[in-house]
Amino acid sequence: MKTGCQWRAIPNDFGSGQTCHRRFQEWERAGVFKKIYKSILKYYDVKNKIAWDWASMDSAMVKAPKGGV
């Protein structure tokens, strides 16, 4: 997983950009974001009954031109 976030631009209320980046990497390695995604998907399926027989998902990650500016 990769973000276009500039870690140094994060408000200091959340800690330094370096700390936020380190925690992001730790959470990614621990599978936190995948667990959140699966939990939300399961919740949505229970509430809305996803039609899995025809559902399809796709995604792509690309670098923002000019560093996201």
TrEMBL record:
Transmembrane segments: none annotated. This is Insertion element IS402-like domain-containing protein. Residues 1-36 form the Insertion element IS402-like domain. InterPro entries: IS402-like_dom (IPR025161), Transposase_6_like (IPR052909).
